């Protein structure tokens, strides 16, 4: 059925029961990634902590199993990173998808390595990371801690 | 009572031998025999088309219309003979009404630019909710360029155009053109072209049919359906890419200004002004797709040798076979239930995204389409972001439908 191991159990389970999906209200920054070829869409909200590090990432994803699982794993991995660390991680992941080798990407993302033989599906996996970059770009450097994109104080 | 002893051939099996005409069907994908169920996107090519194009380049090729040498004259004859073939294929009253374009998209853009330039601000164009982007975006561009109103005829939940709503949309007499599909690339809906034309004409509007899907499956008769414009593309009709057709009524084409300017479309040129060639050449600027046009001619010959009766019977029987087979797949839902369906079946499956369906089918050698099928507004109307789509051609077999259904059942089991 899936000779390439594209749909490993972990991917299917994560897509079925994501742990970081949820409302984005009150996020410090929000971003969206869309794939015009297929209509998939990932919306991401980021919350930063007092040091400007990513405290929480949540997502709202309409997409395939690859897209959903990737979004959920992205949200888990980005938490605790600073901005540049999260962006670098996304680029390392993109390199992994091109080569099938983990390189500098977190080893848990190797479940997506078989995608390097499915070029038409790579965008499914990178969509959430694009949305994360867009969300981070929306937060001006030096944003007062706890201030939301609407200029409202977080509770 | 008919007691004829003749044993009727199964209409699906009747075309089985034709598979041998398509070399690509002998290929394997991921180690499995290719099951090609994406012909609505682009059909595979019979050896007759492949050879016609190769032979042209090998033995009989030169630029057309203006050469004074033997090769140019012969190539011009071959090119222009295809215009006669197209006219016969669609029942056009005159060969000059057949204009070669790059594809159906370009044909519709030609009408939107040229016929559109004759419209006045405040006039309207009506499309339907189930149009391909090719018959939507050009009209949006015309709207934004020329102050034309764009109206959208709704479809029913089963996927048919609401004709009463269409009547209301044209009732104020402001509609210059009704432009709708003759067969939906997503739902397979065959639209009641003659009734739509009658509704348009009664309100003083012209009517354009996008026949890209229909012409593959059924005989077109532009006079019987009382069309004013008809478009289709060669590559879905077993011909090559890069060649499409616009048919239009002569009086309309003659009143319309050129679309593209350049060589071949002029009568005379000075630095002060140019005058235009007669139709169809007025609309065929520059060296056309000569080889592709000859390839289209070979495809039309191929279709006509088989006959639309056999093609339509094959397809109808295949759809009737496929719908209940697919209904047996757990969690599968066929999208739409139009009054008349061509060989296109879109579906979704509970708990499995269409892209995952398409990727796993591909791993088993089965090619289908997944996504919004260039019909995003229709997807929104249906409350879906994407579907998977299996589409049939004259080479599709019952066994391929069985393979699709069996593999879909496995995929469902894999995810649940």
UniProtKB/TrEMBL annotation, chain A:
<dbReference type="GO" id="GO:0051536">
    <property type="term" value="F:iron-sulfur cluster binding"/>
</dbReference>
<dbReference type="InterPro" id="IPR002871">
    <property type="entry name" value="NIF_FeS_clus_asmbl_NifU_N"/>
</dbReference>
<dbReference type="GO" id="GO:0016226">
    <property type="term" value="P:iron-sulfur cluster assembly"/>
</dbReference>
<dbReference type="GO" id="GO:0005506">
    <property type="term" value="F:iron ion binding"/>
</dbReference>
<protein>
    <submittedName>
        <fullName>SUF system NifU family Fe-S cluster assembly protein</fullName>
    </submittedName>
</protein>
<feature type="domain" description="NIF system FeS cluster assembly NifU N-terminal">
    <location>
        <begin position="7"/>
        <end position="137"/>
    </location>
</feature>
<dbReference type="Pfam" id="PF01592">
    <property type="entry name" value="NifU_N"/>
</dbReference>
<feature type="region of interest" description="Disordered">
    <location>
        <begin position="13"/>
        <end position="35"/>
    </location>
</feature>
TrEMBL record, chain B:
<dbReference type="Pfam" id="PF00266">
    <property type="entry name" value="Aminotran_5"/>
</dbReference>
<dbReference type="InterPro" id="IPR015424">
    <property type="entry name" value="PyrdxlP-dep_Trfase"/>
</dbReference>
<dbReference type="InterPro" id="IPR015422">
    <property type="entry name" value="PyrdxlP-dep_Trfase_small"/>
</dbReference>
<keyword id="KW-0663">Pyridoxal phosphate</keyword>
<dbReference type="GO" id="GO:0031071">
    <property type="term" value="F:cysteine desulfurase activity"/>
</dbReference>
<keyword id="KW-0808">Transferase</keyword>
<protein>
    <recommendedName>
        <fullName>cysteine desulfurase</fullName>
        <ecNumber>2.8.1.7</ecNumber>
    </recommendedName>
</protein>
<dbReference type="InterPro" id="IPR015421">
    <property type="entry name" value="PyrdxlP-dep_Trfase_major"/>
</dbReference>
<dbReference type="GO" id="GO:0006534">
    <property type="term" value="P:cysteine metabolic process"/>
</dbReference>
<dbReference type="InterPro" id="IPR010970">
    <property type="entry name" value="Cys_dSase_SufS"/>
</dbReference>
<dbReference type="GO" id="GO:0030170">
    <property type="term" value="F:pyridoxal phosphate binding"/>
</dbReference>
<dbReference type="InterPro" id="IPR000192">
    <property type="entry name" value="Aminotrans_V_dom"/>
</dbReference>
<feature type="domain" description="Aminotransferase class V">
    <location>
        <begin position="35"/>
        <end position="404"/>
    </location>
</feature>
<comment type="similarity">
    <text>Belongs to the class-V pyridoxal-phosphate-dependent aminotransferase family. Csd subfamily.</text>
</comment>
């Amino acid at each position: 059925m899936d000779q390439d191991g594209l749909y490993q159990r972990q991917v299917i389970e994560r897509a079925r029961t994501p742990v970081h999906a949820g409302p984005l209200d009150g996020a410090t920054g929000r971003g969206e990634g869309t794939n015009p070829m297929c209509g998939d869409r990932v919306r991401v909200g980021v919350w930063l902590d007092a040091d400007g590090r990513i405290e929480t990432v949540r997502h709202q994803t309409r997409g395939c199993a690859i897209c959903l699982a990737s979004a959920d794993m992205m949200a888990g991995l980005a938490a605790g990173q600073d901005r540049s660390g999260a962006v670098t991680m996304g680029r390392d992941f993109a390199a992994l998808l091109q080569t099938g080798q983990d390189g500098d990407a977190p080893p848990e993302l190797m479940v997506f390595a078989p995608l390097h033989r499915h070029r038409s599906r790579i965008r499914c996996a990178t969509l959430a990371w694009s949305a994360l970059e867009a969300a981070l770009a929306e937060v001006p450097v030096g944003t007062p801690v706890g201030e939301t994109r609407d200029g409202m104080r977080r509770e | 009572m008919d007691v004829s002893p003749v044993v009727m051939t199964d209409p699906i099996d009747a075309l089985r031998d034709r598979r041998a005409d398509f070399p690509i069907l002998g290929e394997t994908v991921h180690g499995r025999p290719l099951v090609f169920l994406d012909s609505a996107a682009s059909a595979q090519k019979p050896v007759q088309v492949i050879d016609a194009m190769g032979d042209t380049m090998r033995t009989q090729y030169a630029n057309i219309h203006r050469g004074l040498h033997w090769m140019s004259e012969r190539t011009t004859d071959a090119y222009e003979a295809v215009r006669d073939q197209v006219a016969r294929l669609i029942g056009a009253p005159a060969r000059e009404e057949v204009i070669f374009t790059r594809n159906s998209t370009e044909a519709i853009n030609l009408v939107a630019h040229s016929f559109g330039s004759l419209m006045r601000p405040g006039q309207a164009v009506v499309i339907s909710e189930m149009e391909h982007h090719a018959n939507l975006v050009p009209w949006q561009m015309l709207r934004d360029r020329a102050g034309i109103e764009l109206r959208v005829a709704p479809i029913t939940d089963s996927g048919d155009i609401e004709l009463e709503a269409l009547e209301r949309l044209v009732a104020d007499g402001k509609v210059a053109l009704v432009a709708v599909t003759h067969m939906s690339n997503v739902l397979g809906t065959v639209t009641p072209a003659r009734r739509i034309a009658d509704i348009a004409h009664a309100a003083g509007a012209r009517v354009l049919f996008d026949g890209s899907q229909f012409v593959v499956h059924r005989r077109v008769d532009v006079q019987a359906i009382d069309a004013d414009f008809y478009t289709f593309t060669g590559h879905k009709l077993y011909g090559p890419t890069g060649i499409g057709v616009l048919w239009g009524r002569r009086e309309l084409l003659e009143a319309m200004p050129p679309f593209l300017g350049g060589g071949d479309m002029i009568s005379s040129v000075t630095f002060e002004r140019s005058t235009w060639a007669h139709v169809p050449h007025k609309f065929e600027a520059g060296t056309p797709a000569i080889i592709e046009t000859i390839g289209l001619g070979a495809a039309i010959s191929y279709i006509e040798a088989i006959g639309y009766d056999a093609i339509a019977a094959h397809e109808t029987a295949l759809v009737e076979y496929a719908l209940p087979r697919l209904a047996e797949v757990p969690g599968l839902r066929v999208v739409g239930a139009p009054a008349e369906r061509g060989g296109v079946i879109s579906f979704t499956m509970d708990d499995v995204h269409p892209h995952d369906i398409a990727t796993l089918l591909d791993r088993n050698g089965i090619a289908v389409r997944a996504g919004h099928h260039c019909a995003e507004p229709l997807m929104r109307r249906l409350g879906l972001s994407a579907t998977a789509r299996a589409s049939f051609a004259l080479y599709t077999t019952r066994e391929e439908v069985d393979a699709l259904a069996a593999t879909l059942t496995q995929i469902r089991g894999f995810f649940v």
